[in-house]
Amino acid sequence: MSDIDHRKTAVLDRRTVSLAGAQRIIDAALARAEELDCLVSVVVLDAGGNVSALARRDGVTATVTTVALHKATTALTLRQATDEFVAAVRTNEVLVTSLSSQPGFALIAGGVPLVANGDVVGAVGVSGARNGKDLDIARAGAGALDR
Questions:
Q1: What is the pTM of this model?
Q2: Deepest of 9, 30, 93, 128, by most Cβ within 10 A of its Cβ?
Q3: What domains are defined for the chain?
Q4: How does the average pLDDT of the chain come out, rounded?
C-alpha cells in the first residue's frame, strides 16, 4: 500500500498522504521520541490541512497536542519547515509578529512539510520535547514516508 493517496475530483487532482502513510509517520516519530526519552504529541495533516493521524505519549497535556497541530499547520501553509522559515525571516520583526499572531500558527521548530516527488502532500508537527528535539522527531517521522 502506498503512502500517497491519489484522488481525482471534478475540481482537482490532489496527491495527499494516505492514512497508512500517516500512521507510518506517527510510528517513526514516536519511536524516535522514545529513543530520546521525550514525551511528545505528533500530528500528521493531509494536503488539505485535515488531521490524518494524531498520537501522544502517555502524560502529554492537551496544550502540547495543540502546539503540535499548529506546527504542522504552519509547515503545510508555508510549505517549509517551521525552523527554516523563522531563520529566513528572523530580521523582519513586523512579519514575525504578524504571522505569530495568526490563529493556528506556530513559528517554532517542529513542523515539517511532507514532500513526495516534489509535491507537498501533508505535514507533521511535533511538540513536547526540549532543545531542538521536536525537529529531530518530526524529521524522523517525515523520513518514514514511502521508505
A1: 0.88
A2: 128
A3: 4-142 (3.30.450.150)
A4: 89
